[in-house]
Amino acid sequence: MHALIGVVLYLLLAPVAGCLLAGLDRIATARMQRRQGPPLLQPYYDFRKLLSKQGAQINAFQGFYVGGFLVFTALAGGLFFAGSDLLLVIFALTVGGVLLVLAAASAGSPFAHFGAERELIQMLAYEPMLLMTAVGLYLAGGSFRVDELLGAPAAPLIVLPGVLLGFLFILTIKLRKSPFDLSASHHAHQELVRGLTVELSGPHLALVELGHWYENVLLLGILWLFLAPLGWPLAAAGTALAYLLEIVVDNSSSRLRWETTLRASWLAALVLGATNILLLHYLQHHYLSGGLL
Amino acid sequence: MNWMGCYVAWLEFLILFPLIPALLCLVLKPGAVRDWLVRLSAAVLAFAALVVAGAVWADKSGVSIYTVEIPGLKWIQLTLEWVLYGFLFWRSLSMRGPKRVIPWLILAQLAAVTWFEAGDALPEAHSLLAIDHLSALLIAIVGVVGGLVAVYALPYMKEYQEHHHDIPDRRGVFFFLIFLFLSAMNGILLGNGLTLVLFFWELTTACSYLLIRYSGHPDAIENSDLALALNVVGGVLFTAGLGTIALHWAPATGEVLGLLNLGHGALLPAILLGAAGVVKAAQAPFHKWLLGAMVAPTPVSGLLHSSTMVKAGVFLLLRLAPIYTHTLAGGLLAGVGAASFLGCSLLAVTESNAKRVLAYSTIANLGLIVACAGVGTSEALWAGMMLLLYHALSKALLFLAVGSAEHRLGSRDIEDMEGLLLRHPLLGGVMMTGILGMFLAPFGMLVAKWKVLQAFADHAPLLAVVVAFGSAPTLFFWTKWMGKLVAVPRLRPERGGAGGGAWVLVLLAILSVAAAAAAPWISSWAVEPELLRIYGSAPGFKAPELLVLLALGAGLMALPLFFMLFPGTLPASAPYLGGANMGEGFTNSFHQVQETRLRNYYLHDVLRPRSLGAALGVVGAALLIAAIAAGGF
Lengths: 293, 633
Known about the structure:
The structure holds 2 protein chains of 2 kinds.
Chain A: H1 2-32, H2 42-52, H3 62-81, H4 86-105, H5 110-141, H6 146-150, H7 156-159, H8 161-174, H9 202-227, H10 232-252, H11 258-286
Helix pairs in contact in A: 1-3, 1-9, 1-10, 2-9, 3-4, 3-9, 4-5, 5-8, 5-11, 8-9, 8-11, 9-10
Chain B: H1 2-16, H2 19-27, H3 32-58, E1 64-66, H4 73-92, H5 102-118, E2 129-131, H6 133-163, H7 171-190, H8 194-212, H9 218-246, H10 256-262, H11 267-280, H12 288-292, H13 298-307, H14 310-324, H15 328-349, H16 354-375, H17 378-409, H18 420-423, H19 425-439, H20 445-459, H21 461-486, H22 502-517, H23 519-535, H24 544-565, E3 580-582, E4 585-587, E5 593-595, H25 604-607, H26 609-632
Antiparallel strand pairs in B: 1-2, 3-4, 4-5
Helix pairs in contact in B: 1-3, 1-7, 2-7, 3-6, 4-5, 4-8, 5-9, 6-7, 6-13, 6-17, 6-22, 6-23, 7-8, 8-9, 9-11, 11-14, 11-15, 11-26, 13-17, 14-16, 14-17, 15-16, 15-21, 15-26, 16-17, 16-20, 16-21, 17-19, 17-20, 17-22, 17-23, 19-21, 19-22, 19-24, 20-21, 22-24
């Protein structure tokens, strides 16, 4: 029953939360750039306008790919907030990501093609650390299930510092923030033609935005898993702080080359994620009697 | 009991029956009669395989061991072994360079085998044949997928000979070898006597050697020699495994099931046999032979990669997996698989040749199965068996689809497959089904990786880390391939069929989708009883959310079929090209028509395939040697 309530609440409220988050993001970004910024609900106005526009498509299947992206992203979030298996959540999210790449690749335009290939490189960059996040949380909490992880006695914050840092690293890629916004940037000065979504217009683009709102709420939910044992006020503050940090990074760095992005994220996954996991496993087996950690 | 006797006859039938069409193909003249012989025999073989497997699935009591005693079989077997090894020795005499050692290795093997049998160095097997859920699963795969590949080979080889006038038409020999191969494969799966399994093991080596050599071109000869040389090394490892028993380094037994009953006591022979499986499954450092094997006609690749040969390797490893559980040697063997998975997934990213991509992905996938076998827990074995089934279906489909595409497009380069979904809806559709089956929908990599990661997280987090790193590149190379298929073609689409044998492609596509949708039932009938018998517990599909995911995934897989039924229309609007669009290009700032061409990324500068391949070989060899050493202590 709890699971069902979680799913319904997520499906209904995540777009609202995601939209507000996007609005706050834009205001914070503007303030950092000494601008006034748009009203809080600007992302919603944009979304409504996109929906009302006439759509144009290059490939008859584009709508299907975009719809699939939305469905699988929402499914991933739904599974997460139902308290389900974290690995399945990540896989559903991956399927959604693949469909978004196909939407871009199906257009056959050079800009969309570059966007698709660069989005794939981003996925190549973040996927190992994302999977290791799940493995790390499993080692700390003894389960892959979100509901059981929330009730686990050990604070992942203490035993998983490396995994948390690694996750924050790839969170920058997942939130499409500079310096890792290779496939499509939110900053107008970064690119003349937007890559990934250049051939999507009107309602299709609106669906992509909606999918991103679902996705961002899910990502912050995963971050919450690390902070949950602190109690909800501190966890909320921590999550907000992390997001603010991402905005600061976003506004204080320029886009990296894809080679650098790929190397840096794999190195981060190896040094922060893998080392933490192996060390934790070693400690659990050799120094601590089971159950404590 | 009468029924049991009848059942034994079915098992013998599976091994002996393919020899009849094999020999008839040799003597019959090309024509409709021979074609129908191949079709009917494939159908009979598939039917018999399903009957045998179905009987196991229906019987919930567990392992069924059937005794077959044929007086004097030992001597018949020994004679056949002399013929086989003599043939291999003769063929390997022409090898040059470091491969000159191969004939001597073959002679050493022959001496050892003669000693095992004529010298009674190995205890004689009481039951020669055995079947349980693991072998039943593979029997079904070999019968159905192998049969379909044989039937597909009929029109394919006809076109092949028309395309290649310089290659002598030896299709009779070709089908002889195919059926002999299927017989040998069934022998490996059903054999319980260790020397009997070794005989069939070497028979598959000989068959694959001759099939890879079919065209007679210099590269075919070179690659068949490589395949033979490496597989002889595998045979030596197998023989060494039996040798440890004969020399009393391991408890005496002449049966596969006897080894299993010994448990950890039989670790040394089990690791050596596992190393032989590693060679056959083309794991690092022996991965080169499978890449070379793609010079053979496509149905051969389809057979080698999906239902025979490499599957014999992982079958043996999965069979011995309970012996590896919680041992260092098993962990190191799992490391060989994990290294192959990571290395070959990365290497696949750097390839644009579709067959090479498929070959690398086969090695990577088998690597995951080998890793599962090495870990040897109930969850790991579950993932390994499921991966094996879905890999066989999807990979056969993909190879045959690439073969058909090669005949239609005149190229096997993925870059030339741009817009295949609109140009050849059927070919593009089945190829999409295959790719989705390989890595997205239920049992492609995605959900199997779920169980693999769960299984590894407990006992071997290092393996889990390697799998996490290896899974990202698989995502990369499959998605960029799909991106090519779904693109709007630069050239005006010419609609065309898939050529002869299209129905086989469609049937395999339907089978893949059906098997994906039926995963929970397949798990509970064909896989879980095996695990319950060995471990007393079995993972399965329990969580309701997994059923949701399965339903959506199977739906996703059905969509390529939808593409085939309702081919898309041409673009409603043209893409943005930064200028005025002009047909295939745009007008640039010099008022010239600029052609556009899009190529995928291959990341050569980052991945450096040459050094990566060399490193993979070194790591694989080191892990394998360490595993054997650890098994000895």
